[in-house]
Amino acid sequence: MSDKPTSFARQHQAHQPGDERKMQPQPESFMKDYKAAGKLTGKIALVSGGDSGIGRAVCIGFAKEGAQVAFIYKDEDADAEITCEHIRKAGAPVLAIKGDIASAEFCRDTVRKTVAEFGGLNVLVNNAAEQHVQEDITDISEAQLRQTFDTNIFGTFFLTQAAMEHLSDGDSIINTTSIVAYRGKSVLLDYAATKGALVALTRSLAGSLTERNIRVNAVAPGPIWTPLIPASFSADEVENFGASSPMGRAGQPDEVAPSYIFLASNDASYMTGQVLHPNGGTVIGG
């Protein structure tokens, strides 16, 4: 049997993207049991939303595989510093950049800082996202709709545009979509719409970059225990989060990060325009 938790303490956070330090139990996001093999030695990676959750596990996993890592975070300074500490423990340099990816200028400046610090860019992970629960489409304000698309879609576009002049033969872009892009979620209409758009963007961009041999893929996690969960749902919903998945529990960030490591490495050299589905057993056709 799995030793992963099947239920969680009742909890809610009023601020997104949420604070990992306040979660009970703590997510497994430090890649403690991961066995590295030098798959990303010499690579330079930039990860949005790298301070906690899936992004944190990806950053630490990349570092363990030999990459130099820059990551973006919005405002969770303490979480970001913990991520930095674990990247350094893995023996890798790290650059943490605070700001809002909804700004095209911030995205351009972030890429410039990453290239100036490490000398290039090989892997871009578009992972930062937000979601806001609303029971009815008429309850979604224009401000919420625009903010969700600003972070989840426009931020991905802006970062990708800024990275393009630095990416070259053999490099990789990885987008974080979601199971809700395929299954929908009645209380996350705008979030689900952005994640569906990311699937289409992944496939379209992959086709446009094949001649340059820049691979574009995505990961579509199912229910994963990250700060976004208590920052989005009520304490009652959080308590049983993930229980309806075929495996009967939520996943942990450490169980998702290996998908990104695979897609960033030469092991995935014949994969582009594809989506991986670490989701606890839900079968996705497409």
UniProtKB/TrEMBL annotation:
Comp. bias intervals (Polar residues): 1-10
Positions of the UniProt region annotated as Disordered: 1-26
Alphabetically ordered keywords of this record: Oxidoreductase
Signal sequence, renumbered to the chain: none
Family matches, as Gene3D superfamilies: NAD(P)-binding Rossmann-like Domain
Top-rank taxon: Bacteria
Entry similarity comment: Belongs to the short-chain dehydrogenases/reductases (SDR) family.
Protein name in the entry: SDR family oxidoreductase
